[in-house]
Amino acid sequence: MVIGVPKEIKNNENRVALTPAGVAEFRRFGHTVYVQVNAGLESGFEDEEYIDAGAVMLPTIEDIYGIAEMIMKVKEPIASEYELIKEDQLLFTYFHFASSEALTHAMIDRKAVCLAYETVEKADRSLPLLIPMSEVAGRMAIQEGAKYLEKPQKGRGILLGGVPGVKPANVLILGGGIVGTQAAKMAAGLGAHVTIMDISLNRLRYLSDIMPPNVDTIMSNEYAIREAVKTSDLIVGAVLIPGAKAPHLITRDMLALMREGTVLVDVAVDQGGCIETCTPTTHENPTYIIDDVVHYCVANMPGAVPYTSTVALTNATLSYALQLANKGWQKACRENDELKRGLNVVNGKIVYKGVADAFGLPLDDVTELLQREEEEEVNF
């Protein structure tokens, strides 16, 4: 198979979809890999490293899309890329369709095969390609939140861990999944008083067992959230519904309950956000203020630490990408239910329920679609 790795062009997105080590693995199985010039530079990988690993370097993004059968990316295509995408071309990347109707319709119109990292799902419902970036984002949420609590950043002027004789900050984390767990570990390690809310009592029991004494667990509901935001200094939104739009747990009217300089970090912003007043920002202009509350809503947080993120992402995606390349996407998805769950849009049809529900669009059955594909292959 011919694999293409374009340079990411979303604002301040410094990651790249494949390391030189990943290129070498594709080459070991006889595949051809084209990488755009300087695609890995911001992640710390020089063009010469890709060449040494067996990649062919191409100068422009148009060249990459024009030649590749499978495009490997980090973030969803942006508007300037839509016209470059070919019918039947496989795109393997983070899409987060439920938060963008324009992107969804564009991929339907292009009749591409869109396999989303974030909905590849194991039998135990874990999300293996989302986990590494969720780990990064969860830890970064505290790192960034601590910075924006500083007075020059319009925060409350509180040191997250306090000092002897002065109370530490109160950190509220909504969601006890991967993001929430990593955020809690970081905040607790820095000495903050941490509260995690989740709707799963089993998850709260688990977190209560593994977390240090300065972490409390509370069952999540609207009343509990309204009470908690009154005394929270940093609030992290860490709620995920795979492939679907995140629910608004912090509503507009709750801002009035918060103290001036409270910081909100919505890690779920690329899936619509779980804080009603959050809209996507960039690393260039990461925050804005509403009702004296600081909002940090960067949609690609791990892009700020691209070396760590790129290596972690390739570690997770490579085995799946090799299956797609070795077998073709149709056979790979028929034989691997994890990959099949990653299919969101196929040749103009939506095959993932969360995306169809988000925009009231018709849903095709992915199993039937794959069976039709198999019949067509046999007849051909």
UniProtKB/TrEMBL annotation:
Residues in Alanine dehydrogenase/pyridine nucleotide transhydrogenase N-terminal domain copies: 4-137
InterPro entries documented for this protein: Ala_DH, Ala_DH/PNT_CS2, AlaDH/PNT_N, AlaDH/PNT_NAD(H)-bd, NAD(P)-bd_dom_sf
Keywords tagged on the record: NAD, Nucleotide-binding, Oxidoreductase
GO CC annotations, alphabetized: plasma membrane
Pfam families: AlaDh_PNT_C, AlaDh_PNT_N
Top EC category: oxidoreductase
GO biological process, one term: L-alanine catabolic process
Annotated binding of substrate, by residue: 15, 75
Molecular function terms, GO-annotated: alanine dehydrogenase activity; nucleotide binding
Oxidoreductase keyword on record: yes
Active site per the UniProt annotation: 96 (proton donor/acceptor), 270 (proton donor/acceptor)
Catalyzed chemical reaction(s): L-alanine + NAD(+) + H2O = pyruvate + NH4(+) + NADH + H(+)
Residues where NAD(+) binds: 134, 198, 203, 220, 239-240, 267-270, 298-301
Domain Alanine dehydrogenase/pyridine nucleotide transhydrogenase NAD(H)-binding: 149-297
This enzyme's EC code(s): 1.4.1.1
Family classification: Belongs to the AlaDH/PNT family.
Protein name: Alanine dehydrogenase
Natural source organism: Larkinella terrae
Gene name in the database record: ald
